[in-house]
Amino acid sequence: MSMTSTAESSDLYTARELLFCQTGIYQDEQMRPYVIFNMIASVDGRGAVNCASATDRRVMAQLRANVDAVVWGGGTIRRDPIALRLPPDLEHRTPLAVIWTRSGHLPAEHPLWQNERSERLIFTMTATRELQDIPAEIRQVDSLLQMFFVLWRDYQVRTVLVEGGPTFNSLLLSESIGEEIFLTLAPVLKGDDTPAILQTGLTSYLQLHCHSVKQVKDEIYLRYWIGGLCVESLPRRQ
Ligand SMILES: NC(=O)c1ccc[n+]([C@@H]2O[C@H](COP(=O)([O-])OP(=O)(O)OC[C@H]3O[C@@H](n4cnc5c(N)ncnc54)[C@H](OP(=O)(O)O)[C@@H]3O)[C@@H](O)[C@H]2O)c1
């Protein structure tokens, strides 16, 4: 584990630091891509998408440019005007845009549907005609894990960046899907009822191993490897 203080103007992570595993992960007797999460939270643990600084946006772009696909849950797409645009020096590696929606309810108009540089793929568990006007390929699967198997097998996706939201993150982690977390700690206390970066739903806590801690002015950039599910229940603080 390393702790560094980085100048605001330089990239936080070197290209070498963002070389993710290219072989994939063996799970349930099949291969799936290597999965990393990128989230931002306030110091009081609330999801804090509106607090992103220029450095945080650059980290997001760097991560996007170093994976084969970026995946969002349908709740985030319905709520946020996400656009998978990368800065000119990184746009040569625009990843596949993937959306997961169990029900198939997605907005007909969204900035993500306008990006000509990126291919789009929607995975759903429901046969629905609602998605037919969206300019994306639609795949129906039986489970979240199957989506990842299909990404690896049919689209040669070896690395996936998950950009939330909290329900989707919990669903993945409870299925043991996820190898790393990049977490930006924004220097704010929100004090409201914004959900955390993870919805409730994990039966046991997950052990994390700190990979690096970087500081830019008042922001902290944490990177963790995700260990296995711990069998004990959460320890109580005395
Ligand atoms: N802090 C951060 O870094 C960050 C990052 C991203 C998003 N966010 C915030 O998170 C919020 C949205 O998060 P969210 O939790 O509402 O939604 P979400 O996590 O983006 O989406 C949840 C997805 O899971 C699906 N789902 C729900 N239950 C399921 C089940 N049992 N099996 C399989 N799939 C299931 C939903 O399907 P349906 O489509 O059918 O509902 C939906 O596609 C927004 O406010 C956004 O701003 C914060």
Description:
The longest helix is centred in the middle third of the chain and has 12 residues, at 144-155. Strands 1-11-12-10-4-9-5-6-7-8 form a ten-stranded mixed β-sheet. It has a two-stranded antiparallel sheet with strand order 2-3. It is of the alpha/beta class and 238 residues long. The model has no long low-confidence stretch (mean pLDDT 90). Helix content is 16%, strand content 30%. It has one domain: Dihydrofolate Reductase, subunit A. It binds NADP nicotinamide-adenine-dinucleotide phosphate. Residues 39-41, 47-49, 73-76, 79-80, 100-103, 105, 144, 163-168, 171, 197, 199 line the site of NADP nicotinamide-adenine-dinucleotide phosphate.
Class by SSE composition: alpha/beta
Strand count, sense and barrel status of the largest sheet are: 10 strands, mixed
CATH architecture group name: 3-Layer(aba) Sandwich
**Which ligands are bound?**
NADP nicotinamide-adenine-dinucleotide phosphate
CATH class: Alpha Beta
Number of helices: 4
Mean pLDDT, all residues: 90
Weakly predicted, low-confidence segments: none
Number of strands: 12
What name does the CATH topology carry?
Dihydrofolate Reductase, subunit A
Shape type: globular
The name of the CATH superfamily reads: Dihydrofolate Reductase, subunit A
Domain tally: 1
Intertermini distance: 29 Å
Radius of gyration, whole Å: 18 Å
